[in-house]
Design brief:
Family (chain C): Belongs to the RNR ribonuclease family.
Main location (chain C): cytoplasm
Largest interface: A-B, 37 and 33 residues
CATH topology of chain A: Ribosomal Protein S5, domain 2
GO biological process, one term (chain C): rRNA processing
GO cellular component, one term (chain C): cytoplasmic exosome (RNase complex)
Radius of gyration of chain B: 18 Å
Chains: A alpha+beta, B alpha+beta, C alpha+beta
Structural class of chain B: alpha+beta
CATH architecture of chain B: 2-Layer Sandwich
Radius of gyration of chain A: 24 Å
Distance between the termini of chain A: 72 Å
Distance between the termini of chain B: 57 Å
Oligomer: heterotrimer
Number of strands of chain B: 9
Number of strands of chain A: 12
Cofactor (chain C): Mg(2+)
């Protein structure tokens, strides 16, 4: 009797599963047909996203960044309406940042590190320097490797390999914004200053970012954290023993006491403008990001030069709008840069004091 | 190598029976239902708890109790030597399992059937005793999430070097190759829920070392209670009670 | 109580790694001064009456440690930062300092300034560790005393103490290349071809591992190799390629052989060497120091450029004593010291250091790269505890590669069924003579079970005597090509240790079937002479036989019978007749120039229960021994003549080369010093001059003979086809031909000779192996090797038991000086047959106020008040000491 009952139960549950699987399949095909490239920041047109969400939470998790709170239609209108009226849900104006706090030297084992919080978004960046051999093609430059990890503490969907996609996207975006082209021209970070002995010895900087808590605008936060971490970075002074022959690796003596401070003046800040409806906002929360149609991330240095640019999101943008957005972001970046610099210097003062 | 000087001081200046400085902070990850940071000297971990919530993968649902899951991960920069490890290597899987089992032992899972509790621990810095620090952080995070528990679990390690039992090994002492006894206890019930040791040790010495680790756990438990009390008072204050 | 301060340090391991460690500062570290009113004075080490407290900086400790060890220095506060720096710079000074601090009699107090909250000093920017230490040293302790007014009294001469010489930092900045790279094989082959390099087997001097020889065919002489650097990682027995050094470097031997102190070479007490092979060879070269204006063209020296074939093996020894690692399970890097001094120390890694430190272990070598001073290897197995009799005995066996395993089933299967008795087949064999009616008897040491020789002596009606030597017929049971034969030929000889015997043949053969015991019928191979009463041999017969011994006598019994004039029984008469003949033969042999050499053999009385030695004494030689010996020599000579006649190309003979001039040099020098001139032109001359060398005391002559013995090399087996007849000479016996025939139970050479003799008599066919001369040569080489090892093992066993004996019995006794050294002399203790160094100065000090008079062989005190000369009698004290744990040794000191 009992076993028969079990059998019935299991068949029922099985049928449920197959149903779900089918619907899942539909969703997948759906998303892929609309916007295959940019899954990030939920570049799905609004109506379709709604449809998706109705069908089930499972399909969304892969397509959204951060925690996605299920939003009702009313909530969505509220968010969009607020942005349109320049009064966002948390009371900010469209071009206002959340409070930024910077803490440096959080990872003593690293050569430099910083933790940046923007509202409830919380990221850590660390810089480790290792001695290496420069590439043959760029024998006068050191390497900079940027890598971002999304900790599952930030959101359960990052569990296992769940965070990989977003991590990769963030890493690539950061590289584009900070390191310039492949040959290294236009890089925000001066890679030539990492050279120790030309063609033989250079410093390789490994920049690791970790998303501890995510509530939107990860790219800007990571960019700020990296900037702070680099200004916190001390690279040990290297004394090279002279008279090493051409094909030998030179003998080096690494100083325990002397550090070279990294020049961070040229490092840009990243400003992401998120377009929701007809307007664009800075420092979007994850709720707001779920409503965006497209976004532009611009990295701008102190001189106001654009160091890198990424457009994300599915909806097309009028070129004039893009130019407009860039000029706005350039304007915003000045404020952000100043704010960040003062935070960084305050944090460093804090660190040396403690 | 001399890990304890004839003057009775360890390399970092502690005496054999002393723990490193510990620090705990509740609520580090605002999105999570419960979270905490726990530091033991230079070892620093963050724990975040999500749940109890709907079971994500229905096939894992348990009808009479909650499903507890745990993932342990180490940040790339957490160790002195930067290394890029693939996620889910054996060591992390093992530690995940250990933490899960330890925490499961104290969560009243039968009160939350058909639900799921996720515990994520992230190591920011590793300097020995990460296992213990993770368990302590997880305890705090669970408490912060308001998940019903029998008791609080705390964990501490002890070792034996230079013929001296040492409490709370740091990385240098841990890599000396001596035994490393990690103990987790339910403090009020006075029950051991976790016990691991590597290397070898005579029975009578093992007893001493384990006792030392248990004393360490109790000290941590006292501190954790204080932190929780402090946190609750603050919450009360904010609510205006 | 805890204050945390992280400080940053960087290490380099190719990569740059930033290391962060916590550094806790405390307020519970006390200053150790009892006058202090802030600190807990119960832990104070310094005396309360101390009016001043001494604080040293690193340089003082490093340079003046001897002064600090003087009890006059007291009330010292040692800062931990100073200790740490000393540890980094010189570990031995650090250990001495640590010993001082833990000595409860000395008032040394270690103050952990680095962890005291008031004395911790953060490194200033641009300050070197040494400067910082100086600053700390001065400031920190005073700060802790809690009397700030004292600080003002301090002068800070940090920049002025440059007067102190810079101490060399011993921390190796990078690995040095210690040995030169081996040449690639292709280059070696080419070099050998062109004659630039020379190939040969490396033999390292047993007594001076920094000296080695390569016998090279291409040069036709031995090439000497001095020092480990020139040996370039080669082991004893390796086939190496050698490059000759330029001729002007051929003379640097002495400085090297003495000055190389890296291994703390030290002579221990050992048995008296029996021949030049046993004795240290390094003295040969010291002739140059007597001021010879044109030193004899010394042998070519060279350096090794490559190793053609390694001879790596397992080695037996123990670990260098070292402090325990921090944890029982941790990996420790230990240095293994082989018992064989020719083997360098070997680095091993172990997790069981605690278990292995007091054990004898076996280690094999894995590699030796040119960056490391010592080869690296790994642990194989443990033999047992150091000093344990069984362990050490096994070590002796392993060291001499003696196979002591029980015989295999295949070998045992070759034995005849037991119990064995004489069969009719043997009796009906036409080649076997029935001699059971003859009165045959044997004379052996007491308790001897492997009796391989028996004798008879019958008076013939014509007044002559028929004398027979009957040797156990081992070849009747050991057939060529059987596993039994292979095993015996591999073992080569039985090995006699003090407490056990390792047989060449399985026990049933050794003790029963072949042993010529009394009252049983046994098969024998007999040599029967007819001799005139003047001991002239008239005829010689060789035959296989059946005998029945009527008595198995011991030497003592036989001697007693001969001496007891009341006994007139036939056996005693036979004995007396034989003795009479033997004396004549002996005299004649000595006439011919045979040397009566002396060796100092010792005998132990062993406790039957514990196997510990109870008494020790010189082996007494009686007439009966000499009698048996004489007939055995005669039999051997007769057999040698017979087999050589039949098989001139493939006989196995034994020869004893004449000693060369330089080998006799030490003997001559000693003799000259005491005013005796020895004639060494021939063995006859030497024998005569030895007879004349009679001093004022009865032992003098024996001593000279012992010294003479050790100048000789050992006799060796050889294949007659390999050498020309004049080289067959046996110098010691003054016999043109000699072989071994009389002990087939315990020597394989005799088995071969038995087969040759049987073939010569036409009894059996010559085994095919004798057609193959290279193979016979290799057998002879193996026999020499085994024979030598067996002797070494016996000696080592005796040495071991001597040590065990003296462990509980410190003894005062008389000794004779046999060798003079710059810081003492070597004495010989006749009573116990041992020899060892007596130091006049502390070890490590060179010479001191003693100097050596080479000509007179004297060591004199500078002021001339005391002098010791060679052969002088001194009284010494013998005691077993343990300078290092688990390394007991016998120490001789002058009373």
């Amino acid at each position: 009797m009992l076993s028969g009952f079990n059998v019935i139960l299991s068949t029922i549950s099985f049928s449920i599963e197959t149903e779900e699987a089918e619907s899942l399949k539909q969703q997948v095909s759906f998303t892929t047909t609309t916007i295959p490239t940019a899954l990030l920041f939920s570049g799905i047109p609004f109506e379709k996203a709604c449809q998706l969400r109705v069908k089930g939470e499972g399909g969304l998790s892969a397509a959204t960044a951060g925690t996605m709170v299920g939003l009702s239609l009313g909530e969505k209108h509220f968010i969009r309406g607020g942005i349109a009226q320049d009064l966002r849900t948390d009371g900010r104006k469209r071009l206002t940042y959340r409070p930024i706090s910077v803490e440096t030297g959080v990872i003593p084992q690293a050569n430099g590190s910083a933790r940046v919080r923007m509202g409830t978004t919380d990221v850590i960046a660390s810089v480790k320097a290792e001695l290496g051999k420069p590439d043959l093609l760029q024998s006068d430059k050191g390497r900079v490797i940027i890598n971002v990890d999304c900790s599952p503490t930030a959101a359960p969907i990052f569990e296992g390999r769940g965070g990989e996609e977003l991590s990769t996207e963030l890493s690539v975006a950061l590289q584009r914004c900070l390191l310039g082209s492949k040959s290294g021209t236009g890089a925000g970070i001066n890679r030539s200053s990492l050279m120790v002995v030309e063609g033989k010895l250079c410093w390789d900087l490994y920049i690791d970012g970790l998303v501890v808590s995510s509530d939107g605008n990860l790219l800007d936060a990571l960019g700020a954290a990296i900037k702070a971490a680099l200004s916190n970075t001390g690279i040990p002074k290297v004394h090279v023993a002279t008279a090493a022959s051409a094909d030998e690796q030179p003998e080096v003596d690494i100083s325990d006491e002397e550090f070279l401070q990294f020049d961070t003046s040229g490092i840009p800040v990243i400003v992401t403008l998120t377009k929701v409806g007809r307007h664009y906002i800075v420092d979007a929360t994850s709720e707001e990001e779920s409503q965006m149609s497209s976004a532009i991330s611009v990295s701008v240095n102190r001189n106001g030069h654009i160091c890198g640019l990424t457009k994300r999101g599915g909806a097309g943008l009028d070129p004039s709008v893009i130019l407009d957005m860039i000029s706005v972001s350039k304007h915003v970046s000045e404020q952000l840069m100043n704010k960040l610099d003062s935070e960084i210097s305050a944090a460093e003062a804090d660190e040396t004091e403690s | 190598m001399e890990y304890v000087s004839p003057e009775g001081l360890r390399l970092d200046g502690r005496r054999p029976m002393e723990m490193r400085q510990i620090r705990a902070e509740i609520g580090a990850v605002s999105n999570a239902d419960g979270s905490a940071v726990f530091e033991m000297g230079n070892t620093k971990v963050i724990a975040a708890v999500y749940g109890p919530r709907e079971v994500q993968n229905r096939s894992q649902q348990i009808n009479d109790q909650a499903l507890v899951r745990c993932e342990y991960s180490m940040a790339n920069f957490s160790t002195g030597d930067r290394m890029r490890k693939p996620k889910g290597d054996r060591r992390s899987t093992e530690i995940s399992l250990v933490i899960r089992q330890t925490m499961e032992a104290c969560i009243l899972t039968h009160l939350m059937p058909r639900s799921q509790i996720d515990i994520f621990v992230q190591v920011l810095q590793a300097d020995g005793g990460t296992r213990s620090a993770c368990i302590n952080a997880a305890t705090l995070a669970l408490a912060d999430a308001g998940i019903p528990m029998r008791d609080i679990v705390t964990s501490c390690s002890a070792g034996f070097l230079n013929s001296t039992p040492l409490l709370d090994l740091n990385y240098v002492e841990d890599s000396a190759g001596g035994p490393d006894v990690t103990v987790g206890i339910l403090t009020k019930l006075d029950k051991v829920t976790l016990l691991q040791m590597d290397s070898k040790l005579p029975m009578d010495i093992f007893e001493n070392v384990m006792q030392l680790a248990i004393e360490g756990c109790k000290a941590i438990a006292n501190y954790i209670r204080e932190v929780m009390l402090e946190n609750t008072k603050e919450l009360e204050y904010r609510r205006g009670i | 109580m805890l204050q945390s301060k992280s400080f940053v340090r960087k290490t380099k391991q190719g990569k740059v790694i930033k290391v962060v460690r916590e550094h806790y500062l405390r307020d519970d570290i006390y200053c150790g001064a009892s006058i202090c009113n802030v600190c807990d004075s119960s832990v104070a080490r310094l005396s309360s009456s101390a009016s001043k407290i001494l604080i040293f900086d690193t340089n003082v400790v490093l340079n003046q440690i001897d002064l600090l060890e003087n009890p006059a220095i007291d009330d010292v506060v040692v800062l931990s930062v100073v200790l740490e720096e000393v540890k980094n710079k010189n570990l031995s000074v650090y250990n001495r300092m640590r010993a001082l601090c833990s000595n409860s009699l000395r008032k040394f107090f270690v103050f952990s300034n680095e962890h005291h909250k008031d004395t911790y000093v953060k490194a200033m920017v641009g300050e070197s560790p040494n400067d910082r230490n100086d600053r700390e040293t001065v400031e920190s302790y005073v700060k802790s005393l809690g009397q700030p007014e004292l600080l003002d009294l301090l002068v800070q001469p940090s920049s002025e103490d440059v007067a102190m010489e810079e101490v060399e930092d011993l921390r190796p900045s990078k690995k040095k290349i210690i040995y030169s790279e081996h040449k690639p094989m292709s280059e070696i082959t080419l070099g050998l071809h062109r004659g630039i390099y020379h190939q040969g087997k490396l033999r390292i001097n047993r007594y001076n591992p920094f000296e080695a020889y390569v016998g090279s065919e291409s040069i036709g002489d031995e090439i000497i190799i001095y020092g480990r650097a020139n040996m370039n990682r080669a082991f004893d027995g390796d086939i190496v390629a050698v490059e000759l050094l330029p001729q002007d470097q051929w003379h640097e031997e002495k400085s090297l052989s003495i000055a190389d102190d890296e291994d703390e070479e030290e002579e221990g007490v050992h048995l008296v060497p029996n021949s030049a092979d046993d004795a240290p060879r390094n003295k040969i070269s010291s002739s140059g120091s007597t001021g010879d204006p044109n030193p004899a063209p010394c042998r070519p020296s060279g350096r090794i450029v490559g190793i053609i074939k390694r001879n790596w093996n397992s080695y037996c020894g123990s670990l260098d004593p070292m402090p325990m690692p921090a944890s029982s399970g941790g990996v420790a890097h230990a240095l293994f010291v082989s018992k064989d001094r020719r083997i360098p120390k070997i680095r091993i890694q172990t997790r069981q250091l605690g278990n292995l430190l007091d054990k004898r272990i076996i280690v094999t070598v894995d590699s030796w790269d040119c960056l490391s001073r010592y080869p690296s290897g790994h642990y194989v197995r443990t033999i047992g505890e150091i000093g344990d009799r069984d362990t050490e005995s096994e070590v002796v066996l392993i060291e001499n590669s003696i196979d002591s395993r029980p015989f295999s089933v295949q070998v045992l299967a070759c034995l005849p069924p037991l119990p064995w008795s004489l069969s009719t087949v043997d009796l009906e064999n036409p080649n076997r003579k029935d001699l059971r009616h003859i009165r045959v008897f044997s004379v052996d040491p007491p308790g001897c079970k492997d009796i391989d020789d028996a004798l008879h002596c019958t008076a013939l009606p014509n007044g002559n005597f028929e004398v027979g030597v009957h040797i156990a017929d081992v070849t009747n049971f050991v057939h060529p090509g059987t596993p039994l034969d292979d095993e015996a030929s591999q073992r080569g000889t039985s090995v006699y240790l003090v407490e056990r015997r390792i047989d060449m043949l399985p026990k049933p053969l050794t003790e029963d079937i072949c042993s010529l015991r009394s009252d049983v019928e046994r098969l024998a191979f007999s040599v029967i002479w007819e001799m005139t009463p003047e001991a002239e041999i008239i005829s010689t017969r060789y035959t296989k036989s059946v005998i029945k011994s009527c008595a198995a006598l011991s030497y003592v019994e036989a001697q007693a019978r001969m001496d007891d004039s009341r006994l007139m029984d036939p056996l005693t008469t036979d004995l007396r007749n034989m003795n009479m003949l033997a004396k004549i033969m002996r005299l004649r042999r000595i006439e011919r120039g045979a040397l009566t050499l002396a060796s100092a053999e010792v005998k132990f009385q062993i406790d039957t229960e514990t196997h510990d030695p109870l008494d020790i004494g010189m082996y007494q030689i009686r007439e009966a021994n000499q009698m048996v010996e004489e007939f055995m020599l005669a039999a051997n000579v007769s057999v040698a003549e017979k087999i050589l006649k039949h098989f001139p190309q493939c006989s196995l003979l034994r020869r004893h080369p004449s000693p060369t001039k330089e080998m006799l040099e030490p003997l001559l020098r000693t003799a000259a010093a005491i005013g005796i001139s020895l004639d060494v032109s021939s063995s006859k001359a030497l024998a005569d001059s030895l007879d004349r060398a009679v001093g004022d005391d009865p032992y003098f002559n024996k001593l000279i003979r012992i010294l003479a013995t050790r100048c000789m090399t050992q006799a060796v087996y050889f294949c007659s086809g390999d050498l020309s007849p004049p080289e067959f000479l046996h110098y010691g016996l003054a016999s043109p031909l000699y072989t071994h025939f009389t002990s087939p139970i315990r020597r394989y050479a005799d088995v071969i000779v038995h087969r040759l003799l049987a073939a010569a008599l036409g009894i059996s066919k010559l085994p095919p192996i004798f057609q193959d001369r290279p193979q016979l040569t290799s057998i002879a080489d193996n026999l020499n090797y085994r024979h030598r090892n067996a002797q070494m093992a016996s000696r080592a066993s005796v040495e071991l038991h001597t040590l065990i004996y003296f462990r509980k019995r410190p003894t005062d006794t008389e000794a004779r000086i046999v060798k003079i050294r710059s810081n003492g002399f070597i004495v010989f203790v006749p009573k116990y047959g041992i020899e060892g160094p007596v130091y006049l100065t502390e070890k490590g000090e060179k010479g001191g106020d003693w100097y050596v008079d080479e000509v007179q062989q004297k060591v004199k005190k500078m002021d001339g008040s005391i002098s010791y000369s060679i052969l002088q009698t001194v009284r010494i004290h013998m005691e077993v000491v343990e300078p290092k744990p688990n390394r007991p040794k016998l120490q001789l000191t002058l009373i």
